[in-house]
Amino acid sequence: MNGLNVVQGNDPCISAQISQDHQFALLEFRSAEDATLALALDGISMEAQSDGTNGTSNGASAGLQVKRPKDYIAPAISDDSEHMDGVVSNVVPDTQSKICMTRVPIYIDEPQVQELLSAFGPLKSFVLVKDRSSEQSRGVAFCEYVDVEGATDAAISALDNMELGDSTLKLVRACVGASQVGAEMSVGAMSLLAGTESTTLEHSRVLCLLNMVTAEELMDSDEYEGEWRQDQSWCLATTADYRQKSARMSRKSAPNTAASRR
Fold this sequence. Notes:
It contains six helices and ten strands. It has helices at residues 32-39, 110-118, 148-159, 187-194, 215-219, 221-261; strands at 13-18, 25-29, 74-75, 99-102, 123-130, 137-145, 163-164, 167-168, 170-173, 180-181. The strands form four sheets. It has a four-stranded antiparallel beta sheet with strand order 5-6-4-9, covered by helices on one side. The chain has a two-stranded antiparallel sheet with strand order 1-2. β1 and β2 (25-29) form a beta hairpin.
């Protein structure tokens, strides 16, 4: 990823932890945009090494799999920047409507890719990933439409798996997690987390709450303190309600227990 026109600085990947069986690795990037770019590598074919690693020798004929963690929840981020008619920005921020297009033939130039995407509506932003030094396309593009509700799904539905030259295009929403949440976590997201369990963990009375605050809230100490007090009150109220329900259930079961003893 070094040397690409959409990467700021060098070495966007700051850490990598490889499993003992070398079946997967956990990667951390400097920014969310760099992590989104790395997702474009999903399905890429790796050249086989002399020691029998990589490529189809490891049984992964589908290529390299790059995905976000299963419990990842993408924040509801919207691009509120002003848009001028006829002007297409070359900066595509990470929003829910950001589209990632991969497997673009490298001989297809930027105006041609932009023209193909514009068939479904005016573009608000668009960038073709290139090498900074050679200006050679890397076969990956990102875009967002002005009409996000009408054009986004239409473009993905029409262009995904479409044959272009000697390749087959792949289009997906670039910034989608297990569920989308805004300032308040949605019921679907809470249900998803509540249904997630691991058989390798011991039972505990400690509850871990994730994604309780956003990055913007952490920058404002007053806002963060307000959120912290609100979350604390919610936890205390939930605990008290749980104890009351447990006490009622215990009282209801007590006569049945006494009757069984007689």
